[in-house]
Amino acid sequence: MNNREDQALAQAAVDALVGQLALAPKPGLPDPRDLTARATRRDHSALRWSARALLPGLTAMAAAARRTGEPSARLRTELGAIGRSTEHTVGLAGGGHRGALWTLGLLVAAAALHPGAEPTDTTALARQLAAHPDRRAPRRPSRGSTVSARYGAAGARGEAKAGFPHVRRALTTLTTARARGATEPQARLDALLTVMSTLQDTELLYTAGPKGLRHVQAAARGVLEAGGTAADPGATALRALDADLRTRAWAPRGSGPLLSGALFLDALGARGTARSTTGDPHRGLSA
């Protein structure tokens, strides 16, 4: 790979994140269509702006993987250092996206190690990278790691060490929903709900506890069992879930980065086709 290809990988990852942010309605998550709440619009605009600040760091991660050539402990340490520097840059641009940086950083590095690999091979390489400890990482516990330890949840690190099973499930849902005639936004929302239906979201565990997490998982499954967002009953159930989570102030923030990872791998597989990760998020989906 050359520098241009490293940049292309990083750009595909950023586009996937921006595409995920543009999707609506995402239950309990920032909604770009909300024209009544200034804070919501400002927060969403800041998230889109800061997402683009990930580009240099993700490019550097791809380049590091290309130079190293294997999912080694040395590469894992270098990715960790680049990640911490990128977190600082993103913080200056408005903050956010720590989960997306973790997910997309590992997947970008894995994709650079084996260009053109199938998604399952890319996630397997990411799993090998995540298995190595980052020996230079600060030893202070994060909120996510504290919640994971308290409830026995896999968390972001466990998801990566398992080879991103929810990213793979989201990819399967994208394929299935498209084959059934869903629009692209509907397919992506179904993929998000697939993640939400089983993910042990540490953010939800922190704010809502195990009972709240089970409530959200069951409601997400309910939308899918009602035919998904392409069916009228499913679309109605989605709106009800979104309203419910906003009333409770519960935000399933762990699901968004994993959908971004799925959209990134999907875009790599669709290179040379007309599909884009940043298309109209509202086409074919009623509000």
Reconstruct the topology from this structure.
Elements: H1 3-22, H2 38-51, H3 55-68, H4 73-92, H5 98-113, H6 119-131, H7 143-151, H8 155-161, H9 165-179, H10 184-198, H11 202-225, H12 232-248, H13 255-269
Helix pairs in contact: 1-2, 1-3, 1-5, 1-13, 3-4, 3-5, 4-5, 5-6, 5-13, 7-11, 9-10, 9-13, 10-11, 10-13, 11-12
Total strand segments: 0
Helicity level: 55-70%
Shape summary: globular
Q: Structural class of the helix and strand makeup?
A: mainly alpha
Sheet bearing the most strands, described?
none
Portion in beta strands: under 5%
Q: Helical stretch count?
A: 13
| Strand/helix succession | HHHHHHHHHHHHH
Stretches with pLDDT under 50, minimum 5 residues = 35-42, 272-287
What is the end-to-end distance?
A: 43 Å
Radius of gyration: 18 Å
- The chain-level mean pLDDT equals 88
Description:
The protein has 287 residues and is an all-alpha fold. The longest helix is centred in the C-terminal third of the chain and has 24 residues. 49% of the residues are buried. The C terminus is likely disordered.
